[in-house]
Design a protein that fits this description.
The protein is an alpha+beta fold and about 375 residues long. The relative contact order is 0.13. The termini are far apart. The radius of gyration is 22 Å and the shape is globular. Helices cover about 45% and strands about 15% of the residues. Strand 5 and strand 6 form a beta hairpin. It has a domain of about 110 residues. The longest helix is centred in the first third of the chain and has 26 residues.
């Protein structure tokens, strides 16, 4: 019997620098290559997807990403794993939809029906509103939620959520319905209604995605994920996808993943990925909040020391802007009101590392120009630095 491959933390960090396109020699030419490399770019914060892509491009900027998303259609923004909003390559969208989003959409649809019922509206009323909304969108070509509300006033019907609580808020039928239609694949988020920092966007009708058997889609997505993030543990894949334990184990078996001995215990790797890889030249990276690399694993000790976490995460588990040196998080950064990019190192790294990190900060500042960024999810270190 063949011995289990042994893949230590140094090897995992070598794979990360190369495969996530963070080492300068491995940077990409196009946003499509970036999305393919990391599989899915977090898009809950409008700035994150742009900054994550730019950090991995040989020529950083936002124009090529906007072209891919809104003109060429080679990338698409959609809800996926853990109900999170991502940008994914168009060819991966059917895998995400069939493996994950479809099941979430069913739950969201039931919630929408209950939401409408609590406001005194039955399913027949909701179906009429949905038909009118899709017809209005077809006629307009694209429209914001506010524009759709003008055409279909029922979308503006609202009720109070969590009445009497500190987080009491009103929510409209339109917010819930558009979210469900997006998850079901009937509509898609288009160009933002402003700059790339805007959280408001246009909606458009979306061509139907191919329907795949759930088990097949999960196996293919697991294989793609291991190619980008492996070796990794069962809990890593379970956390990243939001699948149940049985689904994760079935998907790993279906894609022929093999066990490997990691520094922290058992992991899995694709059968053609058991040999050592050459570490890239020493590298630094400046990554935004919610970047797919720091958010890629549930077990993070091999790249993120436990003592740094309190400074870098918010209370919901969202990571803030980070500084990297050779595959480890060593600090954080923030942009101040005057545009300066301030940094703080959480451990000594040496003069070569500091020089490389400062060069990456300058690279980011140069293409940002007058743009000002405030992460949607604020973390303790980011708040202090930006203040």
């Amino acid at each position: 019997m063949r011995a289990r491959p042994k893949i230590d933390d140094e090897q995992r960090r070598a794979r990360l620098g190369r495969r996530h396109l963070l080492a300068p020699a491995h940077r990409a030419d196009t946003p499509e290559q970036v999305a393919e490399a990391v599989l899915a770019l977090h898009s809950s914060d409008p700035a994150s997807v742009v900054l994550s892509t730019a950090a991995r491009l040989a020529r950083p900027g936002s124009a090529a990403l906007e072209q891919a998303l809104y003109e060429d259609g080679t990338l698409v923004r959609m809800h996926g794993m853990r109900r999170t909003l991502f940008v994914v390559p168009t060819d991966i969208a059917p895998l995400v939809q069939s493996s994950t989003t479809g099941k979430v959409a069913e739950r969201e649809r039931r919630g929408l029906v209950a939401f409408a019922a609590e406001g005194g509206f039955d399913e027949a009323w909701l179906a009429r509103v949905e038909r009118r909304t899709l017809a209005a969108l077809a006629a307009a070509g694209q429209a914001t939620s506010a524009q759709l509300g003008s055409e279909v006033p029922e979308l503006r019907e609202a009720r109070t959520m969590s009445a009497g609580k500190a987080y009491e808020a009103k929510q409209t039928v339109g917010v819930r319905l558009l979210r469900v239609l997006g998850m079901e694949g009937s509509i898609v988020r288009g160009r933002p209604a402003g700059s790339w920092l805007s959280g408001q966007h246009y909606w458009a009708l979306r061509p139907a995605l191919p329907e795949l058997p759930v088990a097949r889609a999960q196996a293919e997505l697991a294989a793609r994920w291991l190619a980008a993030y492996g070796p990794a543990t069962v809990e890593d894949l379970r956390w990243w996808t939001g699948w149940g334990l049985r689904e994760v184990r079935t998907a790993l078996a279906a894609c022929a993943a093999v066990p490997a001995d990691l520094t922290g215990g058992e992991g899995f790797v694709l059968p053609d990925d058991t040999e050592p890889v050459t570490a890239p030249e020493p590298w630094a990276a400046v990554l935004p909040g919610l970047d797919p690399t720091p958010m890629g694993w549930q077990q993070r000790d091999w790249y993120l020391p436990t003592e740094h976490r309190e400074e870098l995460f918010d209370r919901s588990g969202n990571i803030g802007p980070t500084l990297w040196w050779n595959g480890r998080i060593v600090g954080g950064w923030a942009q101040r009101a005057d545009g300066e990019l301030a940094r703080h190192l959480l451990e000594p790294v040496g003069p070569d590392a500091e020089t490389a990190i400062d060069a990456e900060l300058h690279r980011l500042s140069s293409w940002l120009g007058p743009t000002r960024i405030t992460p949607r999810f604020r973390t303790p270190l980011e708040r202090r630095l930006s203040g």
